[in-house]
Specification:
452 residues; 7-stranded mixed sheet; 9-stranded mixed sheet; 14 helices; alpha/beta; Spore Coat Polysaccharide Biosynthesis Protein SpsA, Chain A
Length: 452
């Protein structure tokens, strides 16, 4: 196993530093641990010095003044390249706790010549690397546009290329450690390397324990503080350097026979975005939807559009209209095949476990508690943060309807909201169920209940 240098920058917060360092030393072999002391108080200095005497592979760099996160990391990198000279360098916050096998996971990914940077997943981090705290270990990795700097690894040679090109590892303009990781991600990609999230590596993160002191010193709340450095990033790279092209997986659960009206609806739609059309044949609806959700995560799609094969519609811009809302979960008005063809749009009833259907007029986007998945657009990030299974085929109690034998879409809405996501209905879009003799729409529902 090749050796790696792990660089940790510390400014006080000794209790967190101890947790971090002890977890690394306990769960990691073949490393040099380089601790950069950013002018901490005496208790931290004494502990670091004691540790460096006790452990041969621990090196401590003492800064006379606080160099900031960026300055501290750059000092650690300079020491690693000149002194210990390991082929892999890990940059880590001091408020993390590693899990067994974390470094081996990074090294395996970095063995691929096209990879320039790799990071794990965590309970407290921005973007795709965030997972539910109740962690289910996945088995795949995926490419990312950026990695968050709480803990990541790079080849020393890649770092040398960055320094040769720019004159530094982390850009000093991001001094206190906000947006420096985004800037680094852009620079690594500019060299032609990939950024990889290794979902087999879990790192617990307490998050910003040192940075919070800096926010207090500047009398700034978190949003203002991060916005300040985001502005620096945008000034350097231009507005929105992480623009992500829309890439939609259009997934169709089907038993293998699709009505010509369904095909006509889909082939006449405008699709001004990247997409893949993927039928899932002969699976129960919950199994098919779960399989599609996993595909969207593992194959880098930005959205999943769930579309049942017994629906029809005539709006050419129907998919782009759903995308234009830019919300986590959004569906449309559709009605059940069974009489009285009630709407598949739901609010919670008088008791938590009960739901009641809502018949909307066309009046724009409305937040709901659950919605049918006959046409349902979901951002892939929703599945990254939820525990599996996303969809469950269980009965759901609906007020006035008794026990329903199908409820995977209602249960998905409930689960999404428990994870902090919002669920919407675009009430301006109505699609029809393909019935035996006619399309089932709102008109069918009103006729069945005697309103027409």
């Amino acid at each position: 196993m090749q050796k790696a240098d792990v660089i940790i920058v510390c400014y006080n917060k000794l209790e967190y530093t101890k947790l971090c360092v002890n977890s690394i030393l306990e769960k990691t072999k073949h490393i040099n641990l380089i601790i950069v002391n950013n002018s901490s108080e005496k208790d931290s200095i004494d502990w670091m010095n004691m540790l460096s005497v006790k452990e041969n592979n621990v090196h401590v760099i003492h800064c006379q003044e606080n160099e900031g996160w960026v300055g501290g990391v750059n000092k650690g990198v300079e020491y690693s390249l000149a002194m210990t000279k390991s082929p892999v360098i890990v940059i880590s916050n001091n408020d993390i706790v590693v899990s067994t096998g974390w470094l081996e996971g990074y090294l395996e990914v970095l063995n691929q010549p096209e990879v320039g940077m790799v990071g794990g997943v965590s309970n407290a981090v921005s973007g795709k690397q965030n997972v539910a705290i109740k962690y289910h270990k996945p088995v795949l990795s995926e490419e990312a546009q950026f990695l968050i700097g709480f803990n990541f690894a790079m080849k020393a040679e890649t770092i040398r290329q960055l320094i040769a090109l720019d004159g530094f590892f982390l850009d000093p303009i991001f001094n206190n450690g906000a947006s420096d990781d985004l800037d680094l991600s852009l620079r690594v990609r500019k060299l032609g390397y990939k950024l990889i999230i290794d979902r087999q590596v879990y790192i617990h993160h307490f998050m910003s324990v040192t940075l919070q002191d800096e926010m207090k010193r500047q009398s700034l709340d978190a949003n203002t503080f991060y916005a300040k450095y985001q502005e620096v990033l945008f000034k350097k790279w231009g507005e929105n350097p992480f623009y992500q092209e829309i890439n939609v997986l259009i997934g169709v659960p089907t038993w293998g026979t699709m009505d010509w009206r369904f095909w006509l609806s889909t082939v006449t739609c405008n699709l001004p975005f990247k997409h893949a059309f993927h039928p899932i044949v002969r699976r129960l609806p919950d199994m098919a939807r779960n399989e599609l959700a996993d595909m969207s995560v593992n194959m880098g799609f930005t959205h999943v559009l769930f579309l049942d094969d017994d629906m029809a519609f005539d709006q050419q811009d129907i998919f782009t209209q759903l995308l234009s809302h830019n919300v986590d979960v959004v569906g449309v008005r559709a009605y059940t095949r069974q009489t009285p063809h009630y709407p598949c749009v739901f609010f919670k009833g008088n008791e938590t476990q009960f739901y009641k259907e809502i018949d909307f007029d066309s009046n724009g986007l409305r937040e709901v508690d659950a919605i049918g998945a006959s046409m349902l657009l979901v951002k892939t990030d929703v599945f990254r943060k939820m525990e599996k299974p996303y969809f469950e085929f269980r009965g759901v109690k609906i007020l006035g309807k008794g026990d329903s034998s199908f409820g995977e879409d209602i249960l998905f809405g409930k689960k999404a909201k428990e994870y902090g996501f919002k669920v919407y209905c675009d009430t301006d879009i109505e699609i029809g169920h393909i019935g035996d003799n006619a399309m089932i729409t709102r008109k069918s529902y009103h006729k069945a209940i005697g309103k027409e």
